[in-house]
Write a structure and sequence with these properties.
86 residues, mainly alpha, elongated
């Protein structure tokens, strides 16, 4: 079983998976997926000649903000917790 650095709380072994890191990674991946779905829908609307294809712009803006929030939460966790492996 990996040892834990008492000062930082970081695990020194690579076999241990940080559950919070995994959770934040999953949130980021979900945000990327949501954004891709919206981009696909907007692209299809444009291809199909939908004159209101720009209705996706606000949704895409919100999805981009969510993607950025989740990405930086994940990065901040990894940097502060020291759980870069797994």
């Amino acid at each position: 079983m990996p040892e834990q650095d008492r000062e930082s709380g970081a695990h020194t072994g690579t076999a241990e998976v940080c559950q919070e890191k995994q959770h934040l990674s999953n949130e980021f991946l979900e945000a990327v997926h949501e954004m891709n779905v919206l981009l696909k829908q907007q692209t299809l609307a444009l291809i199909e000649g939908d004159p209101d294809f720009s209705r996706f712009d606000l949704l895409l803006h919100l999805a981009q903000e969510k993607k950025e929030r989740t990405k930086y939460a994940w990065i901040a966790h990894v940097e502060s917790h020291g759980c870069s492996g797994g």
